[in-house]
Amino acid sequence: MTEQELYKSCTLCPRKCSIDRTVTKGYCNEKSELHVSRAALHMWEEPCISGEHGSGTVFFSGCNMGCVFCQNKEISRGEVGKIIPTERLVEIFFELQEKGANNINLVTGDMFIPTIKTAIERAKSRNIKIPFLLNTSSYIEVDTLKMLDGLIDIYLPDFKYIREQDAVRYSKAKGYVDVAKAAIDEMIRQHPNCEFGSDNGEENLIKKGVVVRHLLMPGMLIQAKMIVRYLYDKYGDNIFISLMNQYTPNGQLQEYPEIDRKVSERDYKSLVEYAASIGVVNGYMQVGETAKESFIPSFDCSGV
């Protein structure tokens, strides 16, 4: 199928809304046109991704999740951003490379995968030098990920839930657990091991592989430990596991009082210690005060 045909009855994500996105917005709040809210160097990803020079992040507008606690609600609802042609996205890739980016980090671009595929192919045909990274919620179809085989060098998926009831209550994402497991399986099929190298005078930058993130949420320590156990039992040291404590209530959680607070230091310490106790070595943890608004970038169309 052609790029436009894939949008005409959209089934790129598990919602399979089958809407003609060349005409109407899908569940993701986006039509088929690329909608981008920011393109800039980002210093706050995992050390192997940002390094000292930064990750070249491209934030796409829209989202196929429905997280009640979303920190990036301006863009997830498609309220801000700029419509750009495919060729402009290619130019952005090269501009980020010229600024010293260690990689091109495609943030929440799941609903634009056919167009992103075209843009990456064009950039690679013009000998772009840095890796491409897909930063995703993991609520994505395996067939959609297969479009990117050989194009995406690094996958940075979330694994948000391993309990279906929580996925439905907090993200309105029916089937999330099975979908995310299958999606991560496909990512690791494409990149069964992590490879590191040097660039920009830096060492220990990831060049290929999978880094799975989990954001610890209030009252969900047991679930977080279940996720770590699942990932480590299944993939061992072939992946990196990134444990995050930056959950920030968005001020709109009156109907969800159980998650209307920050994560306790005690719970996060318990999660990190648990990961270490079962043998996780390839991992990242967050230190300091990360759960605050200053860690959320301004979606002002910079670099777009």
Automatic annotation (TrEMBL):
InterPro entries: Aldolase_TIM (IPR013785), MJ0674-like (IPR040085), Pyrv-formate_lyase-activ_prd (IPR016431), rSAM (IPR007197), rSAM_sf (IPR058240). GO terms for molecular function: catalytic activity; iron-sulfur cluster binding; metal ion binding. Pfam families: Radical_SAM. It comes from Butyrivibrio hungatei. This is Radical SAM domain-containing protein. Its cofactor is [4Fe-4S] cluster. [4Fe-4S] cluster binds at residues 63, 67, 70. Residues 58-187 form the Radical SAM core domain. Binds 1 [4Fe-4S] cluster. The cluster is coordinated with 3 cysteines and an exchangeable S-adenosyl-L-methionine. Keywords: Iron, Iron-sulfur, Metal-binding, S-adenosyl-L-methionine. It comes from the Bacteria.
